[in-house]
Amino acid sequence: MASKNKKSDLLPYNPLLTDVPQEIMPIAPNEEAEQKAELIEQVESLATLNKEVLEVKRRQVELIVDNKKMDAAQKLIDGINVVAEKALNAETITKIVSKEDLTPMDLKFLAEAMDKMANTLKNLMTPSMQDELGKRKRIKINAAFRTPSGEQAAISVEVPNNE
Questions:
Q1: Handedness of CA 28, 30, 32, 35 (dihedral sign)
Q2: What does the chain look like in DSSP terms, one character per residue?
Q3: Which residues, other chains included, contact 66 with Cβ-Cβ below 8 Å and sequence gap of 6+?
Q4: d(CA 145, CA 138)
Q5: pLDDT tier at 20 (50, 70, 90 boundaries)?
Q6: d(CA 12, CA 9)
Q7: Which residue among 8, 43, 62, 121 is least crowded, i.e. fewest CB within 10 A of its CB?
Q8: How far, CA to CA in Å, does 145 sit from each of 116, 139, 140, 141, 150?
């Protein structure tokens, strides 16, 4: 067993008789620095690629969710239209209003229904431009002017949020 330990301590070549193999030969300091820089660049590029892949996947999931929301919104709109055709029929409204025994509660319900319909109409009329947080995007227009003499003027216009 002692001979086995001695053999493992020995080099696989005789440095006095042969050249040192390239993979065992020590690396020059400038080559080592270049190799380290290359490895760092590779790691940074991999990190950048991973971030880009994650961003693409996040956007893909957002699009899937947005499509599902659009489908649900379309179903809701179809349902609202079915109810609106019946509830907003002139004959139906005339029957309800022409009842002789309308109570103050009935009038209150009619007023609330009118208010909800007006708000729904208002919401349908507002633009659907929204940012990633679901809020309406702000629209800003900036313009800067400079005269030949060097005087400057700037104009900035912001379309306010309608919410």
A1: negative
A2: -HHHHHHHHS-SS-TTTSPPPTTTSPPPHHHHHHHHHHHHHHHHHHHHHHHHHHHHHHHHHHHHHHHHHHHHHHHHHHHHHHHHHHHT-HHHHHHHHT-TT--HHHHHHHHHHHHHHHHHHHHHHS---B-TTSSBPPEEEEEEEE-TTS-EEEEEEEEPP--
A3: none
A4: 23
A5: low
A6: 9
A7: 8
A8: 47, 20, 17, 13, 10
> Measuring CA to CA, which residue among 60, 51, 70 is closest to residue 130?
70
Q: Where are the domains of the chain?
A: 55-84
Tens digit of each residue's pLDDT (9 = 90 or more) over 121-159: 777 766 555 555 556 566 677 777 778 888 888 777 776
User: pLDDT per residue over 69-88, tens digit each?
Assistant: 888 878 888 888 888 888 77
153 has which bridge partners? 145
CB 135, CB 161: distance < 8 Å = yes
**Rounded Cα–Cα distance for residues 77 and 99 (Å):** 30
pTM: predicted TM-score of the whole model, two decimal places: 0.39
Which has more pLDDT, 62 or 19? 62
Amino acid (1-letter code) at residue 144: A
**Residue for token pair 């940074």:** 44
> Tokens 């306010």 belong to which residue?
160
